[in-house]
Amino acid sequence: MFKFGDLIIYAAVISAALFPFLKEKEAENNKIQVIYDKHTEYFDAGKDTVFFIQANKVEIEIKDRKVRIKDSDCRDKYCVKHGWLKEDQNGKIICMPNKVIIEFVKREDDIIDAVTE
Amino acid sequence: MKIEYGTRVYIIAVFSALASLLQLLEIFIILPIPFVKIGLANAIVLFFIVRKQYLIAFAVNIFRVFIGGFFSAKLFSLPFIFSLSGATLSYFVMVILFIILGRFVSLVALSVSGAIAFNIAQYFLFVYFFDRSVDYNITVSVIILLSVIPGVLTGIIAEILNRQDIELIKKPRI
After folding, report:
1. Burial bucket for residue A80 (CB in 10 Å: 0-12, 13-18, 19+)
2. What are phi and psi of B50, to 5 degrees?
3. CATH for A30-106, among 3.10.180.10, 1.10.10.1590, 2.60.320.10, 3.40.50.300?
């Protein structure tokens, strides 16, 4: 019923079963889409940056796969009060006076409408 | 018991019939876990692999899928293709493991690896046909864990079968 060589097979089976749990969570293919006026730009969620959109006077900060509007010159500053937008949230940060929309989108090359073969 | 045979066809025919009968009777055995069935026919395949009759084992494995598919009215449908590919992959996995590890491996471990190969092949075909976006994920480990139980059961049955005093004797050609 049991022989020495079984240990190899059982070890392989257990490691294959545990592999998904041990695997580090890969960076998901999400990008940050920033729409201002009529332009659309994409930013990598993994890179921590702070940048300033000159025409709309909005400062956007990306950190730890989260994004927020750090500063804005609008009156009510709803966009700044919104705080951090996380990757798994389905939401947008919108600054109406400055015409800026920020949201997480899937990378464009992953979006496939249909495949025929 | 001694089984004498002149050509391999005789053995293949008899044991394919036995294996497909077992596969069909398996429908009436219900395990408490859903989607799990014992691959009793695999015990016969293992029985031949241990006796190093790889060709007979392969033929029995393929024919029982065809005959079982015919009698359960699934011939050439999608489940049938899944079953066929699973049977082929599990055969090759078991044979290669047996050739590499030889007498250091027990039938239970071989049967477990075969059951896992069978289910994994089906899962990857399912992913190929229906949902391309799925990655190697937790579903695979669930499948592996669920196929260990029937694998162990089949392995024990194969071990019992292997301990019977059955000898295959090829008659010399005259």
Report:
1. middle
2. -65, -30
3. 2.60.320.10
The C-alpha of A9 sits at a distance from chain B's nearest C-alpha, in angstroms, of 7
pLDDT for the residue numbered B57: 93
Q: Residue A114: closest CA among chain B residues belongs to which residue?
A: B132
CB proximity B121 to A under 8 Å = no
Q: Where are the domains of chain A?
A: 30-106
**Using CB atoms and an 8 Å cut-off, which of residues 80-99 of chain B contact chain A?**
97
**pLDDT score, position A26:** 56
- Contact state of A17 with B141 under an 8 Å Cβ cutoff: yes
- In 3D, which of B58, B47, B53, B40 has the Cα closest to residue B115? B40
What's the whole-model pTM score? Answer: 0.69
Complex prediction ipTM: 0.82
Domain harbouring B156, CATH code:
1.10.1760.20
Q: Is the per-residue pLDDT at B104 higher than 70?
A: yes
Total domain count for chain B?
1
Residue B169 pairs in a beta bridge with B4
Residue pLDDT, tens place only, A23-63:
665 556 677 888 888 788 888 777 788 888 777 788 888 88
**Which residue in A5, A18, A21 is closest to B105 by CB distance?**
A5
The mean pLDDT value for A74-100 works out to: 83
Is residue A110's pLDDT more than 60?
A: no
Angle between helices A6-22 and B78-101 (to 10 degrees): 130
Name the residue range of residue B67's domain: 2-170
State the number of CA atoms in the 13 A half-sphere of B81 facing the CB: 8
